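Support request, please re-run this one:
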Amino acid sequence: METRIRIDCPNEKQKRFLRDRHRYVAFGGARGGGKSWAVRTKAVLLAMKYPGIRMLLVRRTYAELMHNHVDVLRRMLQGAAVWNDRHKCLRFPGGSVLDFMYCAKDSDLDRLQGVEYDVIFLDEATQLSEKQMRTITACVRGVNGFPKRVYFTCNPGGQGHGYIKRLFIDRRYEPGENGEDYAFIQSLVQDNTALMKAQPEYLRTLEALPEKLREAWLYGKWDVFQGQFFGEFRDDPAHYRDRRFTHVIEPFAPPAGWQIYRSYDWGYAKPFSCGWWAVDPDGTFYRILELYGCSGTPDEGVRWNNEKQFSEIARIEREHPWLKGRKILGVADPSIWDASRGESTAETAGKYGVYFSPGDNARIPGWMQCRYRLQFDENGYAGMYVFEGCGAFRRTIPTLRFDERVPEDLDTTGEDHAADEWRYLCMARPVKPRPVESPRLLQADPLNQLEPLRRVRRWGES
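Re-run finished. Output below.
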């Protein structure tokens, strides 16, 4: 007896997702866009079209996995697929298999050793870490003729926010990543016609959210999300050249008269971070170069000893045209002067001609100085900028979150090494918050003739 499966008609965005043939496809970007339905439907269609295909569907927790997918699919596929409770999988008549897995912590990844899949679905992918996503998707391999794909559904926010944003929103790729393999299909709640018809009040619920949540969950904006520590940081390619309302800009050779700084945060098992900054006559910071000791796995160090770190820093300063021959002032965490176990890190650095002054390690005042630098004036110019090539800073700063126990501090479980050395520099050249200009002053200066004076007053040291 033939078994029929009922599949509802998809909306236009869901159709695009179901038809897409890229190797990596991300779908969503806001709440209520019909992502879970699209994942389940795509898995069923692939299982029916390719007998013998092996697939995996992942959520962060077991409860989410069962409630959002397993229970729904078991009802949908009665008579068409068999649920194996021991192995947590659905088996289809033609031999296709859809496995289910949760990944609440890194140790859950151990279950993937030696496993191969043709297609993997990461539902609510931003709730997973970059390391977890990379490890899981590495299981897509095999020599059969089945399609090899990874499907991500995602909303802004969560520990994997920066990774998904880099790949699918900013489209910034590292060696080994081919931009032509990636596609993003944005789906907002308004695109989910079935939800809007069945639950029209859900739109009003999203509209009533606090500003940052509303921007992320209703409008799918990836530059802000609830809990983001540096929500002010903007990385807008449309303004890299004119430098307005962005903190990331096109690189240029710093003029000879600008002071160069070096900020440093030590690391071994965790990444070390060294940033070089140029400071213009107005006191504006420009992060021009960086050396970030990351193994390629997020928040994992390259395990360079002190000699190797500082010999490389010294080499860069001797050879790089922006640095060689320049007087460089260094600032670092005071802990590198600890000599209780022998030669201090600062002493080792000095042997290579790399010198530092102890930074002010006060955390809350330091973070406030970072925020003051991120402020835009009324014309859209900031107190600090980051060159496009400083990928570690651009990747890690937007992902940092507030500490749940200390409301004004940063959660130190995040990848905060570039942030720490940036903080030491900001405390070395503190500024006051940008004064709010009165409407009377702006009206009296329609040609902005006072703007240069305002920028000196706003960002200078005096």
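Confidence is low (pLDDT under 50) at residues 436-462. The first helix runs from residue 12 to 19.
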